Amino acid sequence: MAQPQSDSVARDILVDIRDVHFSRGDRPILKGITLPIRRGSVTAIMGGSGCGKTTLLNLIGGQIKPNSGTIRVDGVSVPDLSTRELFELRKRMALLFQTGALFTDLTVFENVAFPIREHTRLPEPILRKVVLMKLETVGLRGARDLMPSELSGGMARRVALARAIAFEPLIIMYDEPFTGLDPISKGVIGKLIRELNQSLGITSIVVSHDVAETCSISDYAYLMGDGRVMGEGTPAEVQKTKSEHVRQFMDGLPDGPVPYQYPAAPYLEDLMRWNGR
Amino acid sequence: MERALETIARLGRTFLAAIERLGRATFFLYEVVIATRPLARRFFLVMQQVYAVGVLTLLIILVSGLFVGMVLGLQGYNTLVKFGSEQTLGLLVALSLVRELGPVVTALLFAGRAGSALTAEIGLMKATEQLAGMEMMAVNPITRVIAPRFLGGILAMPLLAALFSAIGVLGGHLVGVGLLGVDAGAFWSQMQGSVDFYDDIVNGVIKSVVFGVVCTWIAVFEGYDAVPTSEGVARATNRTVVYSSLSVLALDFILTALMLGEI
Ligand SMILES: Nc1ncnc2c1ncn2[C@@H]1O[C@H](COP(=O)(O)OP(=O)(O)OP(=O)(O)O)[C@@H](O)[C@H]1O
Ligand SMILES: [Mg+2]
């Protein structure tokens, strides 16, 4: 299954997405996207709502398979893995869901302990130390006995982060880590992403439409649109490009090359039809 | 003409969709059964579920059992007294409960209370991405979430049915002996003498195990297969109750016929 790449540049690429196509039913979502991610970097993937960012993360995590193209993580082709091999890979890969996805019937402590209990047989006193260390990292050691329903959105995301770093993964994928947070919480999460990247060397993929916050913490940024990469470069470069598409997104213009409307029949024609839907 | 064709086509589609769903449910059952093996080492997960089902259903089972037993006592006495054989009331109450009412009513109550809760719980875990999150942590949700609930339901059902029958007999005693003046000695000795261990008790237990498998299977499948939205979960919960109840009643007829050897 593993086919190590030969040249040294390729070895520097941890997640290699090449010419990937993916469609839901007849509707193409990704149309030949190529998006290499360097080992040890914080890479931002930005793009409008519904452009397929979450889909891309699901492809990297092996939850769905592409129609064509290659997806390699650490030299291993993800769609070709057996279930068991995929589970082995996932122990080194964390995905922070847009919604947090904490287990609602477990306390904060038990949520963070969950993956450790499932995959190891640490004695209880050591387990407790490990969990408290993870919670300390995200500043929520004091919240260990709360239930997820008692947490604010920002706290829930930090707990999910503590759970994700239980095994010091190779990669963390953050799906919209900033949405719905106040500026202070955004700053806290941003700082955590940066710190985890620096202290543990975790490669981070940050998917977001929060341009300012994301650019401030990332080393490299991709801009997605229409199922492809529309622009890339360091955050400074991206912010300076002249491409209309990129400009529209970075400046937050409502209409431009990216249409405001979901594809539909012409407006007038639609209104004048007298029956059907 | 075109109308008729359209109707036939729609009928066919509905039928095919139902068959397809049954196929999916069967594959799912197979997966779940395979996934119960690793639970031998972590049996506390199953016991947690037996406990959860017990907490949900115990009270309603006990109260219903008591009333059903009391009604049996009243009705039975009224019929038996016409033939002067009211002393056999204990036997009638015990047989009705152990062979029929215990397993069947328990299963119906189970479907309405524990089954629907199971579907809603699993459906919501799916809707809030908890199951997907588990998969991303390299934990198989079928092993960790579904299989313990499946086994827990199967274990709980016969226990609950036994409790139902026991308290029902007490209810019958309360009415027959306490209110209507049946001789207490006759009540118990008739029961002791004529209730057969294999023909009555074991057959009753077999019934409730079968009902346990079917009700829990339907409940976990509907939850796992639910459309991951609030409406989807509500519909799935509804389906659990309807399908479980119908299956229990139909299966009860088949099982009874087989056990009595009439077919
Ligand atoms: N389960 C699904 N079934 C069918 N279509 C889906 C499904 N999930 C997503 N889609 C479609 O795929 C497209 C991409 O969805 P995706 O969730 O990847 O977008 P996104 O870029 O993450 O958007 P957002 O920023 O709003 O989270 C959307 O247009 C959506 O309609
Ligand atoms: Mg998304």
What features would you describe in this structure?
The complex is a heterodimer of chains A (277) and B (263). Chain A is of the alpha/beta class and 277 residues long. Chain A has 11 helices and 11 strands. Chain B is globular, with a radius of gyration of 22 Å. Helix content of chain B is 87%, strand content 0%. Chain B has one domain. The chains are: A alpha/beta (277), B mainly alpha (263). The interface between A and B is medium-sized, with 20 and 14 residues. The site of magnesium ion has 5 residues of chain A, from helix 2.
Please give the structural blueprint.
The complex is a heterodimer of chains A (277) and B (263).
Chain A: H1 8-11, E1 13-24, E2 27-33, E3 37-38, E4 42-47, H2 53-60, E5 68-73, E6 76-77, H3 83-90, E7 93-96, H4 108-119, H5 124-137, H6 153-164, E8 171-175, H7 183-200, E9 203-208, H8 211-217, E10 220-225, E11 228-233, H9 235-240, H10 244-251, H11 267-272
Parallel strand pairs in A: 4-9, 4-10, 7-8, 8-9
Antiparallel strand pairs in A: 1-2, 1-3, 1-5, 5-6, 10-11
Helix pairs in contact in A: 4-5, 4-6, 7-8
Chain B: H1 2-35, H2 43-80, H3 89-127, H4 130-136, H5 141-179, H6 184-194, H7 197-225, H8 230-260
The structure holds adenosine-5'-triphosphate (ATP) and magnesium ion (MG).
